[in-house]
What does this fold into?
Amino acid sequence: MNEFDLIGRYFARPARRALLGVGDDCALLSPPPPGQVLAVSVDMLVEGRHFFAGVDPRALGHKTLAVNLSDLAAMGAKPAWFTLALALPGADADWLAGFADGLFALADAADIELVGGDTTRGPLTLSIQVAGHVPAGQAMRRDGARLGDDVWVSGALGAAAMAVRHRAGEIELDAPMLAACSARLDWPSPRLALGERLLGHASAALDVSDGLIGDLGHICECSGLGGDIDWLQVPVDVVISHLPESVRQSAALAGGDDYELCFTAAPSEREAIVSLSDSLGLPLSRIGRMRAGQGVAVLDADGQVLPLARGGFDHFSVP
Ligand code: ADP
Ligand code: MG
It folds into this structure.
């Protein structure tokens, strides 16, 4: 199988919205509809760094696209098209079929079109660039949070981080627990519907990929504010609810890979956000608020700052 057979067999599909898709020197694409702008992002996944060797190729196809769609979701953008750059150690037909399967299942569900890419031999590296459309002036940026805004997070946090620790050999999960945590790590759900429907309600948003505290820290820094999180309001995944509190805290607050959305909104939006949660069937938890100052603090039931939050989470080690 040469490079062009490989592209033709696994990645070339008939163009839909693209004027010209896979197969020429460039794809030809129409600009966004009037009143909308392009939202563009790229992410790279490197074996050994972002995923472990031997991961199910279907899950990898899904995840490579999912982490990019999650960035579109965080801005409130609707997916439009993507490109795919692959470095592969060899042309393994089973691996490629699985990867393409996982990739296109999510692409079809998200209504996004593969329009081109690049394929080369090398250490397994997967990179996708996505583009989406968002109404001009309405994208949810990291610098939009205002003093007194509530802080919200979607879904549940912490399970993916436990799977990472198991695979890294730091902890030993039993089989059912490993399966549940691995499902969260390997098959993240980009919160696209939530992102689009938060437009006009949220003042700032991002996706939680590096851990809640660090990621909310980006909103704080960009918005020139500090943030308080109430530990008891943080939606810790039920899968890890029986673990010691220190473990749940490090997984839910400092673990990554959840790909939930963290966003800020004025208190006047509470009712709208609760009904959005109902209509999406997705938990949305109000976990804190934006305050003057800088940095993120995590508070216990008495409003006392938990020692783990002091000094930032760069030094937050796994128990
Ligand atoms: P060029 O030499 O112009 O860079 P390539 O030979 O790299 O073109 O690619 C040929 C065509 O196949 C191009 O249209 C490119 O976008 C597409 N392509 C290459 N790799 C992929 C891939 N992994 N997924 C989708 N399209 C791809
Ligand atoms: Mg090329």
